[in-house]
Amino acid sequence: MAEEQKYEEIEAPKQIGAPADAEVVLDDGSMSLIAHLTELRSRLIKCLVATALGSCVGYFFIQDIMHYLTLPAGKLYYMQPAEAFFTYLKVACVAGFLLALPIIFWQVWRFFLPALTSRERMVLGIVVPASVVLFFCGLAFSFFLVLPAGIKFFLGFGNAELEALLSVNKYFDFVIMFVLPFGFIFELPLVMTIMGKMGLITSAFLKKYQRIIIFLSFVVGALITPTPDVFTQSMIALPIIVLYEVGYFIVRYILRR
After folding, report:
1. Cα–Cα nearest to 182, from 229, 232, 228
2. Which of 103, 102, 104, 88 lies closest to 55, judged by CA?
3. The pTM is what?
4. Keyword set for this entry (predicted)?
5. Residue 203 maps to a domain
């Protein structure tokens, strides 16, 4: 009886410590769930700090930013006492997010880096900068080419009896809804290239569904535009179609899929 009790006393600590030892073995050098969550929180905090600092920079140059934002529309008005102030804050936050976007992409890339192979790291090292560049190209294309044409079209309905009186808050919401989608739309060739490289799509597949994509482009244009007119929908649908053709060209003639 004494030997059995002694045996249980010896085995008990091993059983208590077994889960911890098993976690180390199963972990196999990788991070635990708590470590992943801790790192995720750290990455999110850095992204928020970068956005906050960018917003401060944006608010410092708010007069210059508002000057360029209002160029397509001219003079704006605010209907409530605090409308201009909160619009300035909104503009500064959006500018801060755009300024912090490279850092945000970098933090996302660094978070997934330990789980990637050397080949995948090399690919993402090219994809991440390319995605940032394409996003800003989409914003520039929309702001300098599409937005002025859209504003001119809408203001063209005015006459002697009907004069446009644009609210600064509503105008800025319109600009955001009009410009930001182009940043994501311009990512389309990159997404198609990645999918083609992975073998998920082929040029024959893209050619087969070309007509459907043209139809869906106008559907997307109707969903994300702030107004229901055909002109605005076409201004978004046509770049989608062109970018789709660019992706098709890359998959067929460069990747030879």
Report:
1. 232
2. 88
3. 0.69
4. Cell membrane, Membrane, Protein transport, Translocation, Transmembrane, Transmembrane helix, Transport
5. yes
Assigned domain for 17 exists: no
With respect to residue 237, please indicate whether it lies within any of the assigned structural domains.
Answer: yes
Dist. CA 162–CA 95, nearest whole Å = 34
Range of the domain at 192: 34-158+165-255
Kind and range of the H or E run holding 214: helix 210-224
H and E: helices and strands count for the chain: 11, 0
Q: What are phi and psi of 186, to 5 degrees?
A: -70, -5
Residue 14 belongs to a domain:
no
**Exposed (0-12), middle (13-18) or buried (19+): which is 8, by Cβ within 10 Å?**
exposed
169-186 pLDDT, tens digit per residue, is: 888 888 888 788 888 888
| Domains contained in the chain, number | 1
How far apart are the C-alpha atoms of 45 and 114, rounded to whole Å? 19
194: which 2 tokens?
Answer: 């990645």
